[in-house]
Amino acid sequence: MFWCGINVKLGIAKPSALVKFLLNPDWETRWDAPDILDNFPDKTVVFPVFDVLQKESNPHVRKRLIWILETNKAWDELFACLDSPEFDVRTNAAYALTQSGHILH
Asked: Which domains does the chain have, with CATH numbers?
């Protein structure tokens, strides 16, 4: 994952190459991957990250996935998270939207 992040930083790979690490069975890898991905805003990762978020079981990883959506200004996806059955997803999405200046009506 580290080398993939370096390749993205150097422009050799696209940020979407890091998305595969979000599907790793090891929760620590899924925990670290959003930190790297969050450093490279790219709208092409919004849909895959949102999709992974819907299936993620670890609340700490879900919070980091929401950070990626916030970094990419994926407001529609964040608003959709407000309907999540997971309390932490709703709470973190609401916080992200509040911090962004998007007022909830």
From this structure: 2-100 (1.25.10.10)
